[in-house]
Specification:
heterodimer; A: 3 helices; elongated; B: alpha+beta; 4-stranded antiparallel β-sheet; two-stranded antiparallel sheet; 11 helices
């Protein structure tokens, strides 16, 4: 699977001068994940997960580097981090949209294929299984 | 099986395969046709019995559309949501341009200048040029309120026209569907007609939230908001727009414009059935967003409230003062005028009293205590109010306007960011439609299990990422 951009880990205990650039790179990673989710196939979901995982690791290392620095000088990071949060919210919306589609379709398909249960909910669809016994 | 039976069976099979090839060819030829759905033709084995007259072989079943109605409806819903956001985003960004939060121009700029000139006049209350500057800047304040009101009135008029155009467009598309239904009844359904119908429904869903159901005879039933019929069989039900207050909710603000209402073919108010699509966005702009600023039959609007508060307070201070000590003392005259009795016309009609001269500005506060520049000082103090009488809802005039402009800016920004996500959600719905078209229930079930585990993994990552981002934001603040 293709890897996203590599984000170097920041050195803990000192202020990372490139923090804003690193947040922008993180943003780009999440943006890639969001784009992948517009076509939610199994492959693109896998690729999306790896991007998000990479972003989590990179954000963890960014946090460590910030912890050791002068945080007041990094208030300028608030805007790019805010934009990153909006991007993450967009990922969540697309993820939930795809989940709602599959769940809704399966409920409908189940009711068409297997009818309804006694309590009125769609009966679970049974996948076809065949056992052939030859004498 | 006799030779004749065998030949007959082979001929039948060839015919069946030819029809399948035709269906495939049709799919390929229409791959780029908007609204076209892949057609599949199932092959059915015929019973064979070598002892009897059943030759076996293969035939084709009923032509069935692979279109997944569920996926179609999902696309339509996302289209409707996109229509709402596109409209809202456009209206709000236009409004944002008219309500600049900077104090250099427009209402805040003019008001700031007037308050500065009050201050200068309080230093030299007898100076003619200071008094003239007050009148000039008061003129600017009146004009800037008039301009803002005119911009709002134009936006309202434009939106009203857009609502009428959108309703006409909905009726026109419904009319096309009615004609398609007529064709389906007369000539039977076919892939071309099916594609045409679906394309028209998709267009319609951009304007409003539409539910479409295909009937066994191939016709399509189209409902607005799942309730109001637009097309049933060969009958079409037109919508119309009414700009009158509803019978059960008479106007509460004199002179205010009535809201826009959508009326169905039976004369019922079905405005609440329009919750998505471009029409919903236009109705929200016309009935909620613009009236919150410029007023309507149910509210005065913030711009009018501000214009009235500013004019009334300045007039009150000036008329409580004296132009000269006399005897007899000459009382002050009001600086501003506006049409009384019409709360929604205050900003539009705000003007400087045409009878006032620089010499008639009352600087003297008769007291007690008597202060020769008392009213001028009181007017200058409006910039930093110390009493509730100088405020609107607890805010200074500048803060009130700032809140109004910031509110529009925030709404505009939110609509813009939602629009971007919605564009991707629509793209996702379209991709899901093409993925699911023609997939069997078994495959779909397997796909769901795969998706569920991928969804869980992704969702966990998103939660962790969001929490980490929030923690990082908290660290730097």
């Amino acid at each position: 699977m293709a890897r996203g951009k590599h984000i170097p880990a920041g050195g803990a205990g000192r202020l990372d001068p490139n923090a804003a650039a690193r947040v922008r790179e993180l943003h780009a990673l999440v943006q890639e994940a969001r784009t992948l989710l517009t076509n939610p196939t199994s492959e693109s979901l896998d690729a999306c997960r790896s991007r998000l995982e990479e972003a989590v690791n990179a954000l963890g290392s960014l946090q460590s580097s910030l912890r050791g620095g002068d945080l007041s000088r990094d208030r300028a990071l608030a805007a790019p981090l805010g934009a990153l949060r909006s991007e993450i919210a967009g990922v969540q919306i697309l993820l939930d949209g795809a989940a709602a589609f599959y769940t809704g379709w399966m409920r409908l398909a189940s009711s068409l294929a297997s009818g309804y249960t006694a309590d009125g909910s769609p009966a679970p669809a049974e996948t076809a299984c065949r056992l052939l016994v030859e004498a | 099986m006799g030779l004749f039976s065998a030949l007959n069976s082979s001929a039948g099979a060839l015919d069946a395969y030819q029809r399948v090839l035709d269906a495939i060819q049709n799919n390929v030829a229409n791959a780029s046709t908007p609204g076209y759905a892949r057609q599949t033709l199932p092959l059915i084995a015929l019973p064979a019995d070598s002892r009897g007259d059943l030759p076996g072989g293969v035939t084709t079943g009923q032509m069935q559309s692979a279109r997944d109605q569920f996926a179609e409806q999902n696309v339509r819903q996302q289209f409707s949501a996109l229509g709402t956001l596109e409209q809202s985003s456009q209206s709000l960004s236009n409004l944002e341009l008219n309500f600049n939060v900077s104090s250099d121009s427009g209402v805040p700029g003019a008001l700031n200048q007037l308050l500065q000139n009050f201050s200068a006049w309080s230093v030299t209350p007898a100076d003619g040029s200071s008094r003239q500057s007050v009148l000039d800047s008061a003129q600017q304040v009146a004009q800037s309120f008039q301009q803002a009101a005119a911009n709002l009135a134009k936006a309202s008029s434009d939106t009203g026209q857009q609502i009428q155009q959108t309703v006409a467009q909905i009726n026109s598309l419904a009319s096309q569907l009615q004609a398609d239904n007529q064709q389906a009844i007369s000539n039977g359904s076919n892939p071309g007609l099916d594609a045409q119908i679906n394309s028209t429904i998709e267009q319609l869903s951009e304007y409003a939230d539409i539910t479409a159901t295909t009937e066994p005879n191939g016709t399509v039933t189209v409902l607005l908001g799942g309730q109001t019929p637009l097309v049933i069989g060969t009958d079409q039900y037109n919508l119309s727009v009414s700009f009158t207050t509803p019978p059960g909710a008479p106007a509460t603000v004199a002179g205010g414009a009535a809201p826009a209402r959508i009326i169905d073919a039976q004369g019922n108010d079905v405005t609440t059935h329009v919750s998505q699509g471009q029409l919903a966005g236009e109705l929200n702009t016309y009935n909620n967003v613009l009236p919150s600023l410029g007023g309507n039959a149910y509210q005065q609007g913030d711009l009018n409230l501000m214009a009235q508060s500013v004019a009334d307070r300045i007039n009150q201070i000036l008329t409580s003062g004296n132009i000269s000590d006399g005897p007899p003392p000459v009382p002050g005259v009001p600086l501003f005028t506006y049409t009384a009795g019409s709360p929604t016309s205050v900003a539009r009609t705000l003007a400087v009293n045409n009878a006032i001269t620089p010499a008639q500005l009352a600087a003297i506060a008769p007291g007690p205590p008597y202060v020769s520049n008392g009213t001028a000082l009181q007017l200058a103090a409006l910039a930093s109010p110390q009493s509730p009488a100088d405020e609107i809802n607890g805010l200074s005039y500048a803060q009130f306007y700032g809140n109004m402009a910031a509110g529009i800016g925030t709404q505009s920004q939110t609509a813009q960011s939602q629009l971007t996500v919605q564009q991707q959600t629509l793209a996702q719905a379209r991709n899901l439609r093409s993925q699911s078209s023609g997939v069997s229930l078994n495959d779909e079930a397997a796909q769901l299990i795969q998706f569920q585990s991928a969804y869980d993994a992704n969702s966990k990552m998103v939660t962790v990422l969001d929490q980490l981002t929030l923690a990082t934001i908290n660290m730097i603040q």
